[in-house]
Design a protein that fits this description.
With 68 residues, this protein is mostly helical. The protein has a domain at 20-58. Helix content is 41%, strand content 0%. It has 2 helices and no strands.
Length: 68
């Protein structure tokens, strides 16, 4: 009998996107392991907010300096 593959492989902890804000948000997923399921929603909402803020910052053109 052949063993079925794990349906939800866990990614390596050392995977990085190269964007500090995104990496910090994704590291928050580690906090889920010790929490009751009832508290997962709060962590997901926090991660979503961090990712949304990072995307907004990336889409916002840098402000011109006063000397320009």
């Amino acid at each position: 009998m052949t063993e079925a593959p794990d349906p939800s492989p866990v990614p390596d902890d050392d995977v990085a996107t190269g964007h500090a804000e995104i990496d910090a948000a994704l590291r928050r997923l580690d906090d889920l392991e010790g929490l009751p399921v009832e508290q997962h929603g709060e962590v997901y909402e926090d991660i979503h907010g961090q990712l949304r803020d990072a995307l907004t910052a990336a889409a916002t053109p840098p402000a011109e300096s006063a000397g320009d």
